[in-house]
Amino acid sequence: MMSTDDDQTGKNTKRLDHIAIAVHSIAESLPFYESLGLKRLEIEIVEEQGVKVAKLDIGNTHIELLEPLSPDTPVGKFLAQKGPGLHHICIGVADIEADLAKLKSSGTKLINETAKIGAGGAKIAFVHPKATGGVLLELSQPT
Ligand code: ZN
C-alpha cells in the first residue's frame, strides 16, 4: 500500500535538505567549515527570516550557517538565550501545503500554519520543537 509520503514510484520523497547552525558571525565561523573541505555555495540575505545564510555543500545535503540581521530576529533571540549551536534541521518535501494540512489535522503544534518564503525562494514552514522531540524542524519545498 502506498502512503501519501510516497511518490508515483513508491519511493519516499522526503530527504534531509539541510542542518542549520546559529552563529554570531559567518565571517568568523566559515573558515573552520571550509578548512574541512566543504564548499561554500552562496551567502544570501533572507529578509523575511531576518538572517544571513551561508550554504555549504556536504554530499546530498547542506549545512547552513545562520547569522542574525539584528538581535530581535528569531535567530538573534536564539543566540541571546542559548548561544551558538544547532538551530534546526530541515526536511525537503514535495508538497508542503499537503504536509501542513496533515500536521494541522492531527493537532501537531506548528510555528507556521502556512508556508513562508525562505532561502532560495523555497516554501518553508517550521514545526514546534514540542512536537518533534525537542528539535526545531523546518519543512521546505524547493521552487
Ligand atoms: Zn533552514
Average predicted local confidence, pLDDT? 92
Q: Name the structural class.
A: alpha+beta
Number of strands: 8
Give the name of the CATH architecture. Roll
Q: How much beta, percentage-wise? A: 35-45%
CATH superfamily: 2,3-Dihydroxybiphenyl 1,2-Dioxygenase, domain 1
Given as residue ranges, the uncertain stretches (5+ residues, pLDDT < 50) are: none
User: How many domains in all?
Assistant: 1
Distance between the termini: 29 Å
Bound small-molecule species: zinc ion
Order of helices and strands: EHEEEHEHEEHE
CATH topology description: 2,3-Dihydroxybiphenyl 1,2-Dioxygenase, domain 1
Please list the strands of the largest sheet in the order they lie side by side: 2-3-4-1-5-8-7-6
Count up the helices. 4
Radius of gyration: 16 Å
CATH class reads Alpha Beta
List its traits.
143 residues, alpha+beta, 2,3-Dihydroxybiphenyl 1,2-Dioxygenase, domain 1, eight-stranded mixed β-sheet, 8 strands, binds zinc ion
Provide an overview of this structure.
The chain has 143 residues and is an alpha+beta fold. It has one domain (17-141): Roll (2,3-Dihydroxybiphenyl 1,2-Dioxygenase, domain 1), CATH 3.10.180. The chain has 4 helices and 8 strands; from the N terminus they run βαβββαβαββαβ. Strands 2-3-4-1-5-8-7-6 form an 8-stranded mixed sheet. The protein starts with 14 loop residues before the first strand and ends with a strand. The relative contact order is 0.18. Residues 18, 20, 64, 88, 90, 138 line the site of zinc ion.
